[in-house]
Amino acid sequence: LSGLDPAQPYFQGTPIEVRLDKSDADFVDVIHTDSAPTIPNLGFGIRPAIGHLDFYPNGGEEMPGCDKNPVSQIVDLDGIWEGTRDFVACNHLRSYKYYSDSIIYADGFLGYACPSYDLFKEGNCFPCPEEGCPSMGHYADRFKDKVKNEFTKLYLNTREAKDFPLWRHKVSVTLSGKSKVRGYVNVALYGTGGNTKQHQITKGTLKPDNTYTAYIDAEINVGEITKVKFLWNNNWINPTLPTLGAATITVEVGQNR
């Protein structure tokens, strides 16, 4: 049984006979996309974990792409009817959009078990454990024999428009050079499945021999990584023409470690 942002008003905090609960089926998975409090945030979706697997994409409250201005949202690519609905209940309706995308992307939407979204963003719950990560949506039931805990909260990020899945990586860059500069470092991944856009690893003071780490959500599954592109730039014209390089770049794939 898959719950697509089950309702909060009149249901949250009620007995299990009234609302969706893990006792309703052999396996219950839930996607929470609008779980901010109804008052004052007008969240439509239930907040607590109530299934065997509870997914909280983007933290489960505010979905990327739902903060577009009302005019652009109503005159949406999908037409005025869908745009109007999204304007009224965009976060709430993301749950079925993620689910429909998950049918196409069997390897997408990996959920990382974590106590909170903040810890997930900091990388504390990366990579997937030995037994792997469950997939949010259509293929969540592939994981039903591996469910251990009373409730499992799972976190992931999505894109702000179709196609929604992202593939998480940990990228560490150790710099080489002679002097520290101010600027930013970008990295792009190339692989058997395609290549990503540039993702920023760090910005600010860049010191040779220091290692900088970031968690990036790639917009495609690059497959086996064949090449990494490293770019750096300083923020202003520097007459000394400093040079920086990458001594090493380490990429860890969340999916298969």
Summarize the structure in words.
It is found in: Cell projection, Neuron projection; Secreted; Zymogen granule membrane. Keywords: Cell projection, Cytoplasmic vesicle, Disulfide bond, Hydrolase, Lipid degradation, Lipid metabolism, Secreted. Residues 167-257 form the PLAT domain. One of its GO terms (biological process) is lipid catabolic process. Belongs to the AB hydrolase superfamily. Lipase family. With 257 residues, the chain is α/β, with parallel strands linked by helices. It has two domains: 1-165, Alpha/Beta hydrolase fold, catalytic domain (Rossmann fold), CATH 3.40.50.1820; 167-253, PLAT/LH2 domain (Lipoxygenase-1), CATH 2.60.60. The protein has four helices and twelve strands, in the order ββαβααβαββββββββ. The strands form three sheets. Strands 1-2-3-5-4 form a five-stranded mixed sheet. Strands 7, 8, 9 and 11 form a four-stranded antiparallel sheet that branches. Helix 1 (38-41) links the parallel strand 2 and strand 3. It is elongated, with a radius of gyration of 21 Å. The chain starts with a strand and ends with a strand. The mean pLDDT is 91.
Topology at a glance:
Blueprint: E1 2-4, E2 29-31, H1 38-41, E3 53-57, H2 70-74, H3 80-104, E4 112-113, H4 117-121, E5 152-156, E6 167-177, E7 181-191, E8 194-195, E9 199-206, E10 211-218, E11 225-234, E12 244-253
Parallel strand pairs: 1-2, 2-3, 3-5
Antiparallel strand pairs: 4-5, 6-10, 6-12, 7-8, 7-9, 7-11
Protein name: Pancreatic lipase-related protein 2
Domain PLAT: 167-257
GO biological process, one term: lipid catabolic process
